[in-house]
Amino acid sequence: MRTTITVNGEARSLDLDPRTTLLDALREILKLTGAKKGCDHGQCGACTVLVNGVRINACLSLAVMHDGDEVVSIEGVGTPDRLHPVQAAFLNQDAFQCGYCTPGQICSTLGLLAELEAGQPSQETPPGARPELTDDEIRERMSGNICRCSAYPQIVAAIRQAAEQMA
Amino acid sequence: MKAFTYERAESPAAAAKAAALTRGARFIAGGTNLLDLMKLEIEQPAHLIDVGRLPMAAIAPTPEGGLTIGAAATNTAVAADAQVRARYPVLSQAILAGGSPQLRNKASVGGNLLQRTRCAYFYDTSKPCNKRQPGSGCGALEGLNRNAAIFGASTACIATHTSDMAVALAALNARVETVSPSGDARSIPVTDLHRLPGDMPHVETVLVPGELITAVTLPPPPAGGQAYRKVRDRASYAGGLASVAVAGGNLAFGMVALKPWRASQAEGALKAGASPAEAIGRELEGASPRGRNDFKIPLVARLAAAAVDEARNNKMGGRGA
After folding, report:
1. Where in chain A is the domain with CATH 1.10.150.120?
2. How far is CA B242 from CA B96, B233, B317, in A?
3. With 80 as the cut, is the pLDDT of residue B110 above it?
4. Residue A54, class by beta-carbon neighbours within 10 Å (0-12 exposed, 13-18 middle, 19+ buried)?
5. pLDDT band at B321 (very low <50, low <70, confident <90, very high)
6. I need a labelling partner for A18 at 20 to 30 A (CA). Which of A133, B213, B221, B262 fits?
7. Is residue B42 part of a domain?
8. pLDDT in tens, A78-133
9. pLDDT band at B314 (very low <50, low <70, confident <90, very high)
């Protein structure tokens, strides 16, 4: 099925078996292997990408559902020479060990920062209030991204650092 | 995943018609539950009708002073909506207690209502499950039933409905708006949407084949405070063991039945002047636990009493969400 998706700024026309998930289209067809297939069931967050600026689990979405959408994976966030502030903060704070979950953590952080900017609440947000970037908010909002190396304290620190730099 | 064909619906009525005409058709919007189950081959649709881009994601006031929420609105959009936060805080809080941000960004209102149970025997295709394979038996009856229902179960199925959102909608007297394959619209109280298991646990709702949920309508919020409380094994991103939604004098329990459980016995007792503990105790007299889930009785008793207190305090303090 013919589907056109803009991936990291470039329109890509794909002929897809409808079963192809967005994650498999990125990894297997477009050879963008930054987004990882951890659990493939939406439980680990390693496949997190941004679709039209919103973070989702690429494993739980069919690529044919994204005709005309704009997808950003970790490959579109920065380059080794020009790191995005979130990437730089993850390096600076040592916010990973094996690195497998990191592309998802970074894309998820970008989504988190946009959601905070838009004033979207979480269960940690006091009723009626505008959310603030507290550690509790960060932990709650990153609960969809698992890190088996347990770099969580450094991930929280990296997100704080990135948010301060980007403010 | 089994092979299937895919189409993008042109309109809600056309989607309903196509679903009724096409063998093995299912609607897909967010897909966060359906695709998970398709990968496990628990769901094997022959055809998917994508309703996720239909113009039914708006959240708007009704002439009656309530709110209508399009079925394709994402869980995130509903929880963050200013009108929902100000007037229906229990709905915002319930949604935010479920799933992860990534899932809520994708999951739709209609899909949340129609999500399948998380019972381990439903998910394990090597085990009997009357819901997955009618007539095969219920593995949970004498098995790992820690998270099974305590209300409205049968010997065919003791699974629970695990939506947080639906519990709040039940307490808010929400109605589910649908369009049928013939093009007729109807409105169903959300508490009547899901069927109790009886001897046909595989028939989960009162919707007819092809009938599409187009919106959820909330009446004006009931007088009084609102609150949502949920207990789970982790602080975040975990299915609930039990939850309670309070909206004024309305009380609904989650994860204790195959539908959001409106606690009408407790509501009646509260209205008659009983204390929250007495009133909730009255409701729990009707509970039938299965052993490993006996703990849900004291859990719901405490959780519901705390939620009623919180709702009353919210009202006194004039606190919105």
Report:
1. 85-166
2. 15, 11, 26
3. yes
4. middle
5. very low
6. B213
7. yes
8. 999 999 999 999 999 999 999 999 999 999 999 999 999 999 999 999 988 999 99
9. confident
Across the interface, of A41, A121, A128, the residue whose CB is closest to B96 is: A121
The domain covering A2-76 belongs, at the CATH homologous superfamily level, to Beta-grasp domain (3.10.20.30)
Q: How far apart are CA B173 and CA B191, in angstroms?
A: 8
For the record, the structure tokens of B302 come out as 């405490």
Q: Is B257 exposed, middle or buried (0-12, 13-18, 19+ CB in 10 A)?
A: buried
B66 in a structural domain: no
Q: Do B105 and A144 touch (CB under 8 A)?
A: no
B150 domain residue, yes or no: no
Which of A17, A57, A144 is opposite residue B237, by nearest beta carbon?
A144
Could you report the per-residue pLDDT of B280-292, keeping only the tens digit for each?
A: 999 999 999 999 9
CA distance A149 to A10: 34
Q: Look at residue B283 and tell me if it is in a domain.
A: no
Number of domains in chain B: 1
Q: CATH 3.10.20.30 in chain A: give the residue spans.
A: 2-76
The model's pTM is: 0.97
The boundaries of the domain holding residue B19 are: 5-50
Q: Between chains, do B103 and A42 touch, taking CB under 8 Å as contact?
A: yes
**Cα A27 to Cα B274: distance, rounded to the nearest angstrom:** 60
SS3 assignment for chain B: CCCCEEEECCCHHHHHHHHHHCCCEEEECCCCCHHHHHHCCCCCCCEEEECCCCCCCCEEECCCCCEEEECCCEHHHHHHCHHHHHHCHHHHHHHHCCCCHHHHHHCEHHHHHCCCCCCHHHHCCCCCECCCCCCCCECCCCCCCCCCCCCCCECCECCCCCCCHHHHHHHCCCEEEEECCCCCEEEEEHHHHECCCCCCCCCCECCCCCCEEEEEEECCCCCCCEEEEEEECCCCCCCEEEEEEEECCEEEEECCCCCCEECHHHHHHHHCCCCHHHHHHHHHCCCCCCCCCCCHHHHHHHHHHHHHHHHHHHHHHCCCC
Nearest-CA residue of chain B relative to A116? B80
Q: Do A65 and B50 touch (CB under 8 A)?
A: yes
CATH number of A85-166: 1.10.150.120
Predicted ipTM? 0.98
CATH number of the domain that residue B9 is part of:
3.30.43
